[in-house]
C-alpha cells in the first residue's frame, strides 16, 4: 500500500460517536480524522461498503493463551489468528494455565521467546501473584508486565496457588508501592460447595452462589482501600456486587470491574443439562442477573467487557458424560466476543459506540495501553471493519480456536468482522504474522 492512505467510512465510531469520517494513516499511525469527503491528496484510498462500520481494533485484556505447557489447549498462533478474525488487535495474556506460569522474570522470558514470531496481533503479558513470589513482583513490573493476576480461591491448576487474605494484603501492598494494577479472581472458597456429579446445570450453579463473589469483592475493596493500591475485579457474574463497587469508587477506592460476553448473552434458564460447553467460573446466572449486568454497563458501574477466553481440549469438557463436576470451567470466545455482545446489545437498543467503549477504549485505558482502543490522532492505526447487520450461524470447525468446542455452536449471531488492520495494514492470515510483543510503559 502507499506510504499514506485514507480509509473512508460512511459510519465510523470515533470519540464515542458514530459519524461519517475519513481516517488518514501514515507509518502505521493515525495522523488525521477528517470529513468523509476530504481530499485524498497522494494517499491510497480504501472505501468501506455502505453496510460496514469502521471501529478501532478491540482490546482484550483477559486471554488464556496457555503456551507453553498446555499448547494443545490453545497457543499464540491459534489465539492471535482467532483474535484477528474477531476484530481484536491487542490481547493481554494471562499468567496461568501455561507451564511455567508467569510468576518470575525467567518464566516471562520463556513465554516471550515462545510467542515471538508467531503472533498476528499485538500481545502483552500479565504477571502472576502467588504466595511464594512477592519478591519477584518488582522484577516482573520492571520487565513490562501490565499488572498482576491473583486468585482468592483454588485456581484449578496446582502450579498457580491462590492467595489467602493475609498474602493478598501483602501482595497488594507491594503492587501499590510499584503503582501496578492487581487483577483478582474474586470468589470466596469458604462458601462454595462441591459440585455434585452429574449433568444438572442447576446443581453446578447452586454450588457457586452469588454471595461467593460478593464476599470476595468486599475483601478486594477493603484491601485496595487499606493499601492505597489499584485493583480490578475480573469476570463479574454476580450483579449483586455492583452496589458495593459503586460505593467504593464514590469513596475514592481505585477499583474497576469487567464482565464477559457469556454473562451478557446467556442465562441459566436456557442452559440444558449436560451442556458443559457453558461451564465457567463464576457461573452464568439467571436472566434477572443478566439484565442487571447490562444495567451496570449502561450506568457506568461495570467498566469493560473482555472475553476471559479460557479454552481446553474437547475431552476436558466431558461432553461424553455431561458431568459438570468433572468438566473444565472455561469458555472460548476470543473470535466471537464482538458479535456475541453486539447481538445482545442491538436487541436491547444499546448503540454500537457503547460496545466499542466497553470492548476497546476502556480496556486499553485501564491497563495503560497507550495508542490503542480508539480512532484518534496519534493512535496506532488498528482498525476493525464490521458489518453490524449481517447474521450468521456459528460453526466451531470454522473458527481459528485450536479446539472446536464452543458455547455458541449453532447459534445465530448478528455482526460480522470483515477485516482487521494492524498498524495501518490489513491482517492477512495467509501471510507471515507481524504482531509485536508489548511492554507496559513503552
UniProtKB/TrEMBL annotation:
Domain of life (superkingdom): Bacteria
Keyword Metal-binding attributed: yes
Amidohydrolase-related domain ranges (all copies): 53-424
EC id: 3.5.2.5
Gene Ontology terms: biological process: allantoin catabolic process; purine nucleobase catabolic process
GO cellular component: cytoplasm
Listed pathway(s): Nitrogen metabolism; (S)-allantoin degradation; allantoate from (S)-allantoin: step 1/1
Cofactor(s) in the UniProt record: Zn(2+)
Entry keywords, A to Z: Hydrolase, Metal-binding, Purine metabolism, Zinc
GO molecular-function terms, A-Z: allantoinase activity; cobalt ion binding; zinc ion binding
Coiled coil: none
Record-stated family: Belongs to the metallo-dependent hydrolases superfamily. Allantoinase family.
Oligomer status and interactors: Homotetramer.
Protein name, UniProt field: allantoinase
UniProt organism field: Nocardioides zhouii
